[in-house]
Specification:
Structural class: alpha+beta
Number of strands: 10
Strand order of the largest sheet: 3-2-1-4-5-10-9-8-6-7
Shape: globular
Helix content: 25-40%
Distance between the termini: 30 Å
Largest sheet: 10 strands, mixed
Number of helices: 4
Radius of gyration: 17 Å
Order of helices and strands: HEEEHEHEEEEEEH
Length: 196
């Protein structure tokens, strides 16, 4: 009997190969009435879908967080030994509990959050949309607490390029220079292969 899950795991291992670090874009898409969570490895300017999970539309709004957490746990466990993944996600994944979950399973992340996100830190406290920084410059807010009932400390990189309609507020655990964090996230948009 064909094991779809094992086939996807083998595809992930084949695409990652012997690389020690990979960027993986994750997003929801829809195939007819079915909601599909897809992870794609970014490779040579393209995105190769490697893992996907279909969710019953009747259950999506009841247990979407649990479904996403299970998907990321599967992704972390399916990676080849020694490979480190950085997952890239849009604002639909900006929940603090997901940041906490990703850390617990060893996945690094760059997640775009919204300007209405409230933070507390040494450099700035308040809504991210109220932070002041020049256009085409990067602002680094290290050791920032995402203020919810259960605060989580993370780094936020802010960027508003001239060609962008609105700024990016990127939550990340990466310790790379701010420009590298923004470039990693930007690779999410330079591929046409990940549905969504």
């Amino acid at each position: 009997r064909f094991d779809d899950r094992k086939a996807q795991e083998q595809l992930l291992k084949t695409v990652v190969g012997d690389r020690k670090r990979v960027l993986i874009a994750v997003d929801w898409t829809k195939v007819r009435e079915w909601h599909v969570l897809v992870a794609g490895v970014i490779q040579r300017g393209r995105c190769v879908p490697v893992l996907w999970a279909v969710m019953d539309p009747q259950k999506l709004y009841k247990s979407q967080n649990a479904f996403e957490n299970a998907f990321f746990t599967w992704l972390a466990q399916a990676l080849p030994d020694g490979a480190r993944a950085v997952v890239l996600m849009d604002r639909g994944f900006r929940r603090v509990s997901l940041v906490r979950h990703l850390r617990s399973i060893g996945l690094s992340f760059v997640i775009r959050t919204s300007g209405t996100t409230r933070v507390t830190g040494k450099c700035f406290s308040g809504k991210l949309e109220d932070v002041s920084f020049p256009r085409s410059r990067l602002l680094d807010l290290p050791d920032t607490r995402l203020t919810t009932r259960h605060p989580e400390e993370t780094r936020v990189v802010c960027l508003w390029e001239r060609r962008q309609l609105e700024p990016w507020y990127l939550m990340t655990d990466l310790e790379e220079p701010t420009r590298a964090v923004a470039q990693n996230y930007g690779k999410r948009f330079r591929n046409g292969d990940l549905p969504g």
